[in-house]
Amino acid sequence: MEMAQRTDPAQEPRTPLSRERVLRAAIALVDEAGIESLTMRRLGQELQVEAMSLYNHVADKDDILDGLADLVFSEIAVPSDPADWKTAMRQRAISARDALLRHPWAPSLMLSRARPGPATLRHHDSVIGSLRAAGFTLVMAAHAISVIDGYIYGFVQQEINLLLHTPEQVAEVGEAMLEQLAGEYPHLAEMITDHAMQPGYAYSEEFDFGLDLILDGLERLRAARRRTLTRRQTRADKSTSTRRSADSVR
Questions:
Q1: What phi-psi label fits residue 34: left (phi over 0), alpha (psi between -120 and 50 degrees) or beta?
Q2: Cys staple from 130: which of 79, 138, 159, 242, with CB 3.0 to 4.6 Å?
Q3: What's the whole-model pTM score?
Q4: Per-residue confidence at 214, pLDDT binned at 50, 70, 90?
Q5: What's the sign of the alpha-carbon dihedral 77, 83, 87, 90?
Q6: Is the torsion defined by CA of 139, 141, 146, 147 positive or negative?
């Protein structure tokens, strides 16, 4: 009876290098070790190839960074229903926050790239299109994107840098602080005792509260703009009707 031949792992065919494979390896590396760990040599080691082989698929490290930013943008849901802009913007904001928390190194990188990739361009075009289809003027759409994105990136940065993430951590630190705070800082002590240390409290839930404020404010501005346009159109129609009546009398 013949024994089955064993396959030497070293002789197994390797998956060919491609730009996609290089970028996927790079994002895995920086997720694990941070953006400062990314070098062509280290990336080559991760892929088990010589660093020079990477240049057949990427121009340089900057090209990789551009690609990483585009990969993260590809993970963010883009608006799909232009008629319901608030739902679309909410889903997009939540998806963006989730993607940025998965890749804590990404916010500063995504805001600093000068050569946006196709996923980045598609994302921004879709967001603008959703707002424009909902009746936002071009200027108001720019304002809306600025305030929403500023909120998303700012909130995520706070979450990333927050030392206390779980209710247990808040309670442990809060109890240690209360004795010191109670006399001199009563309002802060009240916030910790009656809010932050209450069962079920999670700082992450503040994101929805702030997002609702922004979307509700934008909706009021959008509605006011539509009312103004309607009134202008009504006046224009009346003026046209009056002129036609005068012309018919003549």
A1: left
A2: 79
A3: 0.80
A4: very high
A5: positive
A6: positive
pLDDT at residue 3 in the model = 46
Stretch 91-117: mean pLDDT, rounded? 94
149 is written with which tokens?
A: 């994105």
Residues 6+ apart with CB under 8 A from 40: 51, 54, 60, 61
Spatial distance between the Cα atoms of 23 and 137, rounded to a whole number of angstroms = 37
Single-letter code of the amino acid located at 103: H
Return phi, psi of residue 39, to 5°: -135, 160
From the CA atom positions of the chain, what is the Rg in Å?
27
> b or e along 122-157 (b: 16 or more beta carbons within 10 Å of the residue's beta carbon)?
ebeebbbebbeebebeeebbeebbeebeebbbebbe
Contacts 24+ apart (CB under 8 A), 50-57: 53/17, 54/17, 54/22, 56/17, 57/17, 57/18, 57/19, 57/21, 57/22
pLDDT band at 156 (very low <50, low <70, confident <90, very high): very high
